[in-house]
């Protein structure tokens, strides 16, 4: 991002919040949205690190992926499959949002 735009906004009397809201944020919005989408996808699929670090404490540190594992190990396959379907729907929703963000970015770049 070119800092000249921020400097121009400041020289025209904008305060720091106005510069961020009207200059910085519009310039970084696609990267920011894409980062949120990728973070969401990574968080949904995280298993190993959470299991090792948090200890998989039910009701406190158990994520949905850890719940699928523990329900399956406890022979509660209905709950495990329901949680897995929910995770799949969340993943598909994330892919849909990613596709829409990419389409919007491409449409804006084509202008």
UniProtKB/TrEMBL annotation:
<dbReference type="InterPro" id="IPR005667">
    <property type="entry name" value="Sulph_transpt2"/>
</dbReference>
<dbReference type="InterPro" id="IPR035906">
    <property type="entry name" value="MetI-like_sf"/>
</dbReference>
<protein>
    <recommendedName>
        <fullName>ABC transmembrane type-1 domain-containing protein</fullName>
    </recommendedName>
</protein>
<dbReference type="GO" id="GO:0042170">
    <property type="term" value="C:plastid membrane"/>
</dbReference>
<keyword id="KW-0472">Membrane</keyword>
<dbReference type="GO" id="GO:0005886">
    <property type="term" value="C:plasma membrane"/>
</dbReference>
<dbReference type="GO" id="GO:0015419">
    <property type="term" value="F:ABC-type sulfate transporter activity"/>
</dbReference>
<dbReference type="Pfam" id="PF00528">
    <property type="entry name" value="BPD_transp_1"/>
</dbReference>
<keyword id="KW-0812">Transmembrane</keyword>
<feature type="domain" description="ABC transmembrane type-1">
    <location>
        <begin position="1"/>
        <end position="98"/>
    </location>
</feature>
<dbReference type="InterPro" id="IPR000515">
    <property type="entry name" value="MetI-like"/>
</dbReference>
<keyword id="KW-0813">Transport</keyword>
<keyword id="KW-0764">Sulfate transport</keyword>
<keyword id="KW-1133">Transmembrane helix</keyword>
């Amino acid at each position: 991002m070119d800092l000249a735009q921020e400097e121009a906004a400041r020289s025209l009397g904008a305060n720091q919040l106005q510069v961020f809201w009207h200059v910085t944020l519009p310039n970084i919005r696609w990267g920011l949205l894409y980062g949120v989408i990728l973070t969401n996808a990574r968080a949904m699929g995280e298993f190993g690190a959470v299991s090792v670090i948090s200890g998989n404490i039910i009701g406190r540190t158990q994520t949905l992926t850890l719940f699928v594992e523990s329900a399956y190990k406890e022979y509660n396959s209905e709950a495990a499959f329901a949680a897995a379907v929910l995770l799949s729907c969340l993943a598909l929703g994330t892919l849909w949002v990613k596709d829409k963000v990419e389409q919007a970015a491409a449409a804006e770049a084509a202008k």
